[in-house]
Amino acid sequence: RPTVVVLNELNQSETNAYVAGLNSRYGVTDWVGHYYPACETASGSTCTDWAPGGTALLTREPTIEVVPHYVWQADFYTDGRAVIRPRLELANGARPLVFAVHQPTGKAPDGSSDPSARRAATRELRAIADSFADDIRLIGGDFNNLPNGVEIQEFNANYEETKQRLSVHGSRSTIWRLTSVEGAEKVAEHELDFAY
Questions:
Q1: C or N: which end of the chain has fewer Cβ atoms within 10 Å?
Q2: What are phi and psi for residue 142, nearest 5 degrees?
Q3: What is the pLDDT of residues 176-195, one digit of tens each?
Q4: Do 97 and 138 contact (CB within 8 A), yes or no?
Q5: Neighbours of 170 (CB within 10 A)
């Protein structure tokens, strides 16, 4: 069964339903959910109107802390999106930081094609993640990008570093780097421990 699930474009009650469903399916009570809404309208870095949906991170691992960050890069849909950053405490001794993200689209507020908000959000996300350079950092979610997109390529060095750090924990720490289509095929039959 999975350890961490990142979901986007849902609300708090849907998050609660997913948590209840996971606990029911596996016959446990240890799944918890952390949800933060996107900001539909902002004045600077202050949200004035919350969006009906947001980002959720579900986990069955003990959580030491959960810190939300907001990336204030407006696109056609929102003025800001949540990045959820819990620190987990795994049975194998690892204490990774998990970043649950939903990056802006390549569509500008006026509807034109413009990936600049997504690029700026990626730089901001990298700055947040890089401030924890001594930690195992796992990033999952919707990057609103192609696998070979410029923003994704910027994370290649982090992927290799994370893979090496997790190798000390043996087969329990499997790292996957896949698109949603590839993930859908694998998750149906295998445990997805870590996704990059």
A1: N
A2: -105, 110
A3: 555 555 555 544 444 434 44
A4: yes
A5: 9
Size of the chain in residues: 196
52 by DSSP, 3-state: which?
Answer: strand
Nearest to 31 by CA among 11, 8, 1, 55: 1
At residue 7, the 3 state secondary structure works out as: strand
Indicate the pairing of strand 63-71 with strand 32-43. Answer: unpaired
Q: Which contiguous run of DSSP H or E holds residue 1?
A: none
pLDDT, tens only, 39-97: 999 999 999 999 999 999 999 999 999 999 999 999 999 999 999 999 999 888 889 99
User: Element (H or E) spanning 28, and its range?
Assistant: none
Closest CA to 141 of 89, 84, 182, 76: 84
DSSP string, 70-130: EE----SS-SBEEEEEEEE--TTS---EEEEEE---SB-TTSSB-THHHHHHHHHHHHHHH
| Degrees, nearest 5: CA angle 57-62-67 | 50
The structure tokens listed for 62 are: 């003990």
Take residue 142 and report the two structure tokens written for it. Answer: 């919707």
Between CA 116 and CA 105 the distance in angstroms is: 9
User: What b/e sequence results for 179-192 when a residue is b if at least 16 CB atoms lie within 10 Å of its CB, and e otherwise?
Assistant: eeeeeeeebeeeeb
Cα 177 to chain centroid distance, Å, stands at 13
